[in-house]
Specification:
alpha/beta; two-stranded antiparallel sheet; 11 helices; binds iron/sulfur cluster
Length: 327
């Protein structure tokens, strides 16, 4: 199986020479965030992640203790994202590494770990302003939960967004309350809707995440997710596939009672179908989840995210579909 996957990926490494231009101005059959950044800022912007030492109401006991069943923040953190390093040191280390690796000059600081507005406003206000004073930082991406925001915090972010590129990321994972219960999310879909509506129209960019592959949903429901979230004023979307990460409640559940996970071919055929139903102006930041291989239980496709992304693009062209075709 793995060899088939690799063979297919090799064949798709050649970029299509097709010249079709889609409404977002590129020949990519979906509205990619990376292209939008280049068009908007005239250069590539790279995210540099920081761990600011926040926690999460689903972990500290105010909503729950165990967290979402798939959650293991170690699975995506960089080695320099440790609270033993100051935020400026994390940024300098990240910038130095990323500018060598990608030859980039401008950065978005990504407050990724846990819930970065789950604190009194004053605490993150100091941090955000310290970070934004860095000459190579163009803006912030702030990962949080929809139940960790209020009018006062939004008013502050609105003020920042007058001068900087500010994105708030509200994880959703699924618009179905049955799935939110299954993953122990400890908020419902309506809570996400309320946060998105409170944030919209204030100059703040809104990103959300969804996960495809929960055993609590049918494929039809997963496709419908694209239509449901398209009704709300989000600017960006990250699509992840459900993967099982070590040291999570989900890992235990899966080991006790295994269920079907997307295999590679299923996933690269399914994502184009999903994107057909997605509002075409939503810029897609991710098409696949990623985790450190040492923490991954499955599915293990043995491929990097950029390779998977190219395979999905190729598949979209093969299927003759593009983002929003059936929206
Ligand atoms: S909201 Fe985020 S940080 Fe909190 S438990 Fe869920 S996935 Fe983990």
């Amino acid at each position: 199986m793995k060899n088939d996957v690799l063979q297919q990926s090799v064949t798709t490494r050649k970029r299509s020479t097709e010249n079709t231009k889609y409404p977002w101005g590129t020949s990519r059959p979906y509205n990619a965030y990376v292209d939008y950044l280049r068009q908007t800022f005239g250069t590539r912007l790279q995210k540099v992640t920081v761990d600011a030492g926040f926690t999460c109401p689903n972990r500290d006991g105010s909503k729950g203790y165990g967290g979402c069943i798939y959650c293991n923040n170690e699975s995506f953190k960089q080695t320099y994202n440790t609270t033993e390093m100051s935020i400026p040191d994390q940024i300098e280390t990240g910038i130095s590494f990323l500018s060598r690796r990608y030859k980039v000059d401008r950065f978005i600081v990504y407050f990724q770990a846990y819930s970065n507005t789950y604190a009194p406003l004053k605490r993150f206000q100091v941090l955000f302003e310290q970070v934004l004073s860095h000459p190579r930082v163009a803006g912030l991406a702030i990962g949080t939960r929809s139940d960790c925001i209020d009018q006062e915090k939004i008013a502050y972010l609105e003020q920042l967004a007058r001068d900087y590129y500010i994105t708030v990321e509200y994880g959703l994972e699924s618009p179905y309350d049955k799935s939110l219960t299954w993953i122990n999310r400890q908020h419902d879909f309506q809570n996400w809707v309320d946060a998105v509506e409170m944030t919209a129209g204030r100059g703040i960019h809104i990103c959300s995440h969804i996960i495809l592959g929960f055993p609590s949903e049918t494929r039809k429901e997963m496709l419908e997710t694209a239509r449901i979230i398209s009704r709300y004023p989000i600017d960006y979307l990250k699509i992840h596939h459900l993967h099982i990460v070590r040291k999570t409640i989900l890992a235990k559940k899966y080991q006790d009672n295994p269920f079907h996970l997307f295999d590679y071919r299923e996933y690269i055929e399914f994502v184009p179908q999903f994107l057909q139903h997605l509002r075409p102006d939503i810029r897609v930041q991710r098409l696949v989840g990623e985790t450190h291989p040492r923490l991954l239980i499955g599915p293990n496709w043995g491929l990097r995210a950029d390779v998977i992304q190219r395979d999905i693009e190729y598949e979209m062209k093969q299927q003759g579909v593009w983002q929003g075709k059936l929206y």
